[in-house]
Design goal:
0% strand; single chain; globular; mainly alpha
């Protein structure tokens, strides 16, 4: 049994763009449907995820709005040109897809989109930092690039090694080298490893675990994990974007996720200390110690 939303609820109506909203094509009216999907099929596809989207925005509207504002801020911060600009543009699509899937209850797919964003930004930013865009061009041309090799490569770049040594002395860990220089427990690899577990689909990283049913079904745990994963990925990628592109400014509306109370919602303590220091160092020009104290 299904029910229609109250007509006064703005979510009860679907919207379509007018022809003149598109950059390409003429401004003439759209033709009538030529191969309309059967109503039963449409409802079979849309009813369950639509239900989740309504329930999510009924009770998690502030969080959904936060993620939307972050996506808009990200897109507005993209540099005019260059490899970092290309990587940020593509990663922006992943953030948008993550938000859309999160709202509709496809939590595993939301988190998997974030893994793609990590790969794109790591590859693009490493190419920029190393002043060698050949790897990025090869990637664009279809060549397979192992992300582990990208992590290893960025650690060897002299400017990154110097930055990481300084950060590790102050915070006890670092973005790429970790607490002892090996990189195994660095924030970058830790985050990528956790996101990857959802792409591999096993155990507690499946949709069925979140739904406890067939689905999609609204899950507070699924929403929590995907929401926190999106915030953490965004926070990390903005930092490496700044390292690769010093002219990148803190987007309007993004600063809030780096506040101490916000960091406490999605980062473990060691990475909170690291993140706050990196924001202060990269965006505020402060070489002093983080205000957050380890342990």
């Amino acid at each position: 049994m299904v029910s229609k939303l109250n007509p006064d609820d703005f979510r009860s109506c679907r919207l379509i763009l007018d022809p003149d909203d598109f950059a390409l094509g003429d401004d003439g009216p759209d033709p009538p449907p030529s191969d309309l999907i059967p109503r039963k099929v449409w409802e079979g596809i849309m009813t369950l995820p639509g239900d989740v989207a309504i329930r999510t925005t009924n009770h998690q509207g502030a969080r959904a709005a936060m993620l939307y504002r972050l996506h808009v801020a990200w897109m507005g911060a993209i540099p005019a040109e260059g490899v970092v600009a290309e990587a940020m543009l593509e990663a922006g699509d992943d953030f948008e897809a993550a938000l859309f899937n999160l709202l509709h209850g496809f939590y595993k797919q939301a988190i998997s989109s974030l893994r793609s964003a990590i790969e794109l930004m790591m590859l693009g930013c490493t190419s920029e930092i190393a002043m060698n865009t050949e790897t990025w061009t090869a990637w664009e041309n279809g060549e397979e690039i192992k992300i582990k090799e990208v992590f290893d490569k960025v650690q060897r770049v002299p400017v990154i090694r110097a930055f990481e040594d300084e950060v590790r002395r102050i915070t006890g860990t670092s973005l790429f080298a970790g607490d002892n220089g090996s990189g195994r427990n660095a924030w970058a690899r830790s985050l990528y490893r956790r996101l990857s577990s959802y792409s591999h689909t096993r155990g507690i990283t499946t949709n069925s675990y979140f739904w406890q049913s067939n689905g999609p079904v609204y899950s507070t745990e699924g929403l929590r994990v995907s929401y926190q994963s999106l915030l953490e990925t965004y926070a990390f990628l903005l930092l490496i974007g700044r390292i690769a592109c010093p002219g990148l400014r803190m987007p309007n509306g993004a600063r809030v996720i780096y506040e101490r109370d916000s960091l406490g919602q999605f980062l473990e303590l060691s990475f909170r200390v690291l993140c706050e220091h990196c924001v202060s160092r990269l965006f505020d020009g402060n070489n002093g110690q983080s205000k957050v104290k380890p342990g």
